[in-house]
Amino acid sequence: MIKKIYHISIEKMPYWLGLISTLAFAFFIAVVLPSQSALAIENGLLESIDTSWFYNARQLYEIAQSYGESGRSFYITQRWTFDLIWPVVYFSFIFSLSALLYNAIGLSKMNRWILSFSWFSIGFDYLENIMVSIVMMRYPAQTWVIADLAGTVTSLKWIFLSLSFIVLFFLIILKMVQWILWNRRKTDAK
Fold first, then answer.
1. Into how many domains does the chain fold?
2. What count of Cα atoms within 13 Å lies in the side-chain half-sphere of residue 52?
3. Contact 49, 72 (CB under 8 A)
4. CA–CA dist 86, 103 (Å, integer)
5. In terms of Cα–Cα distance, which of 157, 156, 137, 135 is closest to 58?
6. How far apart are the first and last CA of the chain?
7. Which of 31, 38, 146, 147 has its CA 20 to 30 A from that of 15?
8. Helix H or strand E segment including 28
9. Residue from 113, 116, 150 nearest 131 by CA
10. What is the pLDDT of residues 96-106, one digit of tens each?
11. CA-based angle 148:154:157, to the nearest 5?
12. What are the pLDDT digits (tens) for 112-141?
């Protein structure tokens, strides 16, 4: 059932969703992310967990301590407000644009698995938010298993997000090459 929904979401991707998600992504990059970053700095979150490629439990607890009680509270609030929406925005942008390009290029249905990276990135992003929020809520009590796994989940989020952008980049390049070749054939035919 999930596989069927996944394939239908690629085949039936509407152009308007690609446009809206691209505009939302651009708005978040230009306006929302800088303002959220400024708020984090104002609240004492000088070191960001979300932008780290990897950290271990000890480093996570050091960061939790450096945030202080108000910083940890702000971090949790930010994870369950802004960071509920941001993954949906970047996922919608990457997946809709990738699906539209994939269909426009006319690639084989057998290779659609390459579009699944964005699904994994959003899943690991939410899992990271849950795990780090638990650590922040329980601090100074320690939850070593969750704290240890959080760093791995963060790394997996970044790996799948990077793969998603690489796929999108190559689909854009492939569509540009296809368009150039199509125009060249059209010109040669005249």
1. 1
2. 17
3. no
4. 26
5. 135
6. 49
7. 31
8. none
9. 150
10. 999 999 999 98
11. 145
12. 888 999 999 999 999 999 999 999 999 999
| Token pair in block for residue 128 | 């990271």
Read off the pTM: 0.90
Selection from 43, 70, 48 nearest residue 59 by Cα: 48
Of 184, 29, 18, residue with least CA distance to 102 = 18
Q: Rounded distance, CA 49 to CA 129, Å?
A: 10
Rounded to whole angstroms, the maximal C-alpha distance in the chain is 75
Q: Which two tokens stand for residue 7?
A: 């394939």
- Integer angstrom CA distances of residue 151 from 34, 116, 187: 24, 22, 54
> Two tokens at 124?
């690991």
- The first and second tokens of residue 90, run together, are 């970047």
32 DSSP assignment: I
| Enclosing domain of residue 185 | 2-189
Around Cβ 170, how many Cβ atoms within 10 Å?
13
Cα separation of 5 and 11, whole Å?
A: 10
How many C-beta neighbours within 10 Å does residue 96 have? Answer: 24
